[in-house]
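Tokens for EF-hand domain-containing protein. Go.
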Amino acid sequence: MNNLLKRFEPSLTDVIKYLHEHQDMILVERNPYQADRLMMMLDNEKLDALDKEFHEHPNGIELPNFIWLMKCAISHAPEDKYELVNGLIKLFQDIDINGDGHMEWAEFTQYIIDAVIGSKDAQLYDTRFEKERELTEIEVLDRAYSRKSKRYIPMAQVDDSNHKNPIKNIAYCQQLDSVICLEQNSQHLRFYTPECQDKKFTLAPESESGKIFIIHFHTVDNYIAAVTSDRQLIFWDATTFKVIKQFKQEVLQTGIWYFPYHELWVTAGSDYNIRGWSIPWNEKDSKGQVIKFLNAHTKQITDIVELISPKLLASASQDGKIKLWDMQDQKFITELKTPAPSKRGVKGLSYNQDYGSNLISYGFETFINVYCPEVSITRAYIGRLEGHSSLVVTCKFIPQSPNCVSIDDHTNIRIWDIRQMSSVQVIPNDQQSLVTDLCIITRTDRFVYSGKRLNYFYNAAQMSSNQKQKGPNEEVYPIYVEFNMYFNQFIVLTKFDLRIYDAMGGKLKKVMNEVFDDKIQLDLSTFCFGGRQRKLFIADNAGLIRQYNMKTGEFLKKVNMHNEIENSEFANKLANIKKRDTLDISSIIFLQEEKLLISASQDSTIRIYDETDPEESILLKVFCGGHQNSEILSMSYSSNFTMLATGSANGLISLWDFETSKLCGVLNTPQPLAEVTALEFADPYPVLVSLQGILISIWNIKTNKCLLRINTNPLSPMLSVAIFSDISSGPSRQELLPEFAGPLVDKTAQDKKSKLNLQEEQEGLMKDIQQYDTEQHQNKRRALLYMGDQKGYMHILSLTEFLQRKGITEMEKLKKGHSYQLKRKDLIDVSKSVETFLVQEEKQQSPVLTCNISALLIRQWVAHSSAIVKINKIRELVSFISSSMDKHFKIWSMKGELWSDISLAKYDGSNYWKFPFDWVGQKLKDIELVFDALKLIEKENLSPYEKERVKVRFLVNKYFNEAALEEMQRNYAQPEQVVVQREKKRLIQSQSQPMNIALKSIAEPYKELTQKMKDDQLKKKKLELPEVLEEPKRPQSQHGLVQRLMLAFNDNKDIAKEDGIDQKKKQPNKNAHQKRIQELPQMKPSTSHSTFLQKYQRNYRFIQTQVQTRPHTESKKYKFVHDIKYQFGESQRAMKIKYYQNSLKFQSVSPQLLCDDNEILQMKCKFYKKQNEDLIESESSDKSYEEDDLGHPKQHKQIIASHNFLNNAQKNDHKVLNTKKKIFVV
């Protein structure tokens, strides 16, 4: 594809157009630098080096430093630089959920681990195609509930069948939905239902040699296989129970297994060897052939399991060893070792490919060993599961779950969580009984252990398949739906879980059902985003709020407690709050700028929490008394007017000034018993809309007066409202349904004492309708009210013309002040203020017009088949979401066009999805962030044309394959003349722009200085200067600017002789040279920097610049010292010494910023001019390189500093060599 791009360079416009025409391509995004893949690119050495670099910054590193470090640590092709930086920026933003701009090492590593586990959780290994695939929607739902917290209890049904001998082996056959058991010394296989009922059916082998016993059996798909005491291998069809293959072998086999990943039947023989079989199913008379043979153990083989990652077999034996085998090459790989090898042998193994690909072993010990061969097969041991007081008899993983079940010989059962390496449930047993085997019934989440009989256990917390889709009383429907733009997901809240849908394709990606304790019977009530949509706050009907990581689903903290007010600083005011049994939280709102969380609950309180601290929530304020102890059912916040509105069950609406924490008004309706079920501010209009049964009220929040009441259909009351005030054209008007048609003014609802002129008001409403029809297609700010009723109808009402006629116009957003009252802890009781407001309202009550819905109704349609419970806006794309009790949520345009329809009860791919979000534009915004980052780190300034080519390659690498690129070449290839014209235009633009000249290195003024020294002082001698090296560029540090001192030793015979140069022989004096080197100060190297750079020097480019000198006959060499150090001592300096032909030596390297030369010289001159008492001005009139305001070079005296000044730690941060001579300071 890269070769094709070289021949054909599509324009950015063509690429964007092609992607818009082929929306399905956007669904398949190739991202080689995701979090889990980035972790795989870092080996142990690189991680150690990164760890040390992170520890150089105790408060965490910033984004530029993080990108620079990761770019150095990760090997990548030059053309992948932009994709890598884009992945690193997204990674930093995901980890920095608090928004403080810093990342610590612990946060980085923990996030990478969670991301790896999360990515594997969304994948399923398909053995049919030997590759991973994405989970289907039903698999996502099943996996979520299969890993839900387990609470197993014994089933009421008991195995009352007669067993002559103890049960030896049991296995679950999914094809037959039966538990198959084998008794000791038996020739029959017996079948039981998952409900512990005997099917009264047995399966026995046929033999001519008389009575035989089944030693071991295995069931998979349509086959049941067994090995018998007469050395036979027998295979039955699991549907017809007919023998389809039977043959005899020379060696007795003690176990048989089928491994689908290897597609191989494997047996363990009495000669302690392993055999792989090829079974010719289509040839009736032919026998199975041994195609694999392994000389395995020295004692009986007890168990064999298949490993998916890596593709190996693991065998356990009574010789105490667990060995890994490569069946393809028929060779031994390694032996899994533990700190205390088992001398009694290993009884069994169990493997789980999910949650880390762990392997467990048990037998003849009180603990269970855990291995992770996926990470390292040579050091796979990771720990023990300890808790049993007697020997563990059996242990098995629960498929698609992080849990495993273990049973000891005292019949004590433990459920373990392999992620935490701890026990999550203990099922004790007072009566000791025999335990022989264990099997898991995956379909119903049950397990069975065998002994003298079968014992069944089921998961009390598990929901059946019907419950998953319907729930108790069939109430699984979307309560609340929000769009998360950062992760491109729709978050759907039900009473039992939180479901996450991909916004690009509309598919179910994840289910979060462990967001509350199973021991407490409660329902989820609402949620909101926090932390720039990186966090999630979830509230329930028990009055509790929890915070979760939006990316990984990890639990972060508890926001509140039931007794938080009793334990607060204002506990003495607790008497003002009336105790209630219902603590249901009706609404929560998070304010991003203030980092405050507001919650309204049915105990008639409003609580404000400070979320500045990521580890703890602080209760700041409690508002009470605003609703006369009635339950608060709705809440809304206006960012334009910093006002909070709350509505209660008694019909009161309280308005709060949020900054001053004062009650600024109480709104009451003529129906005091009508519950206020919804509230919406119409920003930027000073208007509040309230919904009370069949009545909708429009309020002026500046005067606290009702402007209009709208009477809806009593047969279909409204349940939800949402108001939009955006600039757009209006929806087209449609004819009203007969049940909603009627007069404009409701004369029956008017007060008899009212002085309103109904005829005049009706004419005004008629003019509003005519004005809307006239200005329908104009783009202007409109106040549109969207309502959903109990029958599933959606209604659109226009308030723009009415507000305009009443003189209500949009207002500018109020500037927020720094209110100290907002952060002050207090409990505010406004009971007396509410009574005062109500008395004033009765005295000043003014007449209010009540109209029918037909007066403002523009359009209505059937949106759902059941009640619409919630309407909420998508601010990023002017549209809205409707949630209904028909188990659907739908996305609509402002004009009522259906964009998407998702059913929570269907998982067959029949959902309709056409969400017109500009995904390509979002990716182009991401690449702009990459340009900004590289400009800061590498001083990279790209021209508009270069940026366009980078964007084209970025989109092509993400979404295109060769076939799509070739098709675009055929359809969008431009004629040669157009290409030539485009190149000419680009060339003209590039010539008119300033050239991208790299900043001059610090060696440039140094060259000029040394040339001047050579002309003035060494006119008769030849001066050969060593090479000057440039250090790798690193981003600017937060601790200060990096300074360089470039020191040149004075030219005299004493220094030359001291430097090891004999003036007579003109040859280096080696003894003097060695002596000189020994006098150099020895500094301790910085292990973090030196290790990091020395191991990965391939990521750096050291540029050597040769100093130009005049040719002379005589030869003389000088030594130069470069000293680099932070102003505030953040890291150690780097001493670079080159003497004669010695190689460059690194002792440590600090991040540096290459500034403009003039800025560096001006800064140094200002620094040294302040040290008048220690500086000695020379009589030399050498020119410096500082320029005046007109750009002309200034004349400065050359500054000479003594060693006393330079080595004085109190006056100078820079330490240089103690030469006991004067040195030049540039």
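The chain has a mean pLDDT of 76.
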